[in-house]
Amino acid sequence: MTKERIAALATGASSPETPEPVKAPRLTAPGLLALKGRRKIAALTAYDAPTAALLDAAGVDVLLVGDSIEMVVYGAADTLGATLDRMVAHAKAVSGAAKRALVVGDLPYLTYHTTPEEAVRNAARFVVEGGCRAVKLEGGVQRLPMIKAILSAEIPVMGHLGLTPQSVNALGGFKVQGRRATEARRLLDEAKKLVDAGIFALVLECVPADVAARITEAIPVPTIGIGAGAGCDGQILVFHDLVGLTVPGARTPRFVRRYADLGALVQKAAAAYVADVRAGSFPSEAESFASDPVDPADAAGVVLYAAGAQRR
């Protein structure tokens, strides 16, 4: 897509007609795995039913109910405060609206860090209560027992390496991972071990493009990049970043391509609404309801009611 086309979409100029909803069988974890080497995978985050329905109809393959919701919806500085109860509730909304996309629940911080048994219980909530068909968790070899336990409960697992936001304090911030040769080798080794454990896909976040490409070539499962270059098998972005639905002045990550500026459109629409309300032009007669004509049989009652109201 050209820069000119992106600019037109962002401003609403020359907008194409709404595309026809994509009709295809529901995508599963094995189905996503089978896309490796066949075509690119498009994934986005989703946190509510209307958004999920729109993205699903647009042909998005994977809807991740991400713990990024803690930052882009609830306004936190990181993802660590996301709770399982909150995530499962949002997952239920997304899975109920998505008819075709694979809905993946993102296990929040400390829901899979202690014991394999607890990891299974928490992952199962995404499936049983949230309607998800897979879960995602962050981390490398230290997560292998949890991954194997979740898989033993017949729940597909998506891995996540590179910048793992739940490790932000240990990493010293949101920083690119794998720049040095030793780090790149470690990422490749961990990716292979996660694959051996049974993951069906792997998110690579903020990893140098050449490193991500080597990992992609070396493993048999799809890699889904976010800030990891074009060599991955697919891409994922946070929906709110994609469409500019962010707090005014908020920093946009370098790896984001913005396809619309909904933030500006929302602010403009709200300002117009405020102006119309204060001017008395909203609601109009067409936006209001009229009472039914008075039935002659009820006329006396209406008169008596009006007279009583005047006496009060």
How would you describe this structure to a colleague?
With 312 residues, this protein is of the alpha/beta class. The chain is built from 13 helices and 8 strands. It has a single domain (3-266), classed as TIM Barrel (Alpha-Beta Barrel), CATH 3.20.20.60. It has helices at residues 3-11, 29-33, 49-58, 69-72, 84-97, 116-128, 144-152, 168-171, 181-197, 209-218, 239-242, 262-279, 299-311; strands spanning 41-45, 62-65, 102-106, 134-136, 157-162, 201-205, 223-226, 234-237. It has an 8-stranded parallel β-barrel, surrounded by 6 helices. The radius of gyration is 25 Å and the shape is elongated. The mean pLDDT is 92.
Short account of what is shown:
Helix content is 42%, strand content 12%. With 312 residues, it is an alpha/beta fold.
Task: Spell out the blueprint of helices and strands.
Blueprint: H1 3-11, H2 29-33, E1 41-45, H3 49-58, E2 62-65, H4 69-72, H5 84-97, E3 102-106, H6 116-128, E4 134-136, H7 144-152, E5 157-162, H8 168-171, H9 181-197, E6 201-205, H10 209-218, E7 223-226, E8 234-237, H11 239-242, H12 262-279, H13 299-311
Parallel strand pairs: 1-2, 1-8, 2-3, 3-4, 4-5, 5-6, 6-7, 7-8
Helix pairs in contact: 3-5, 6-7, 9-10
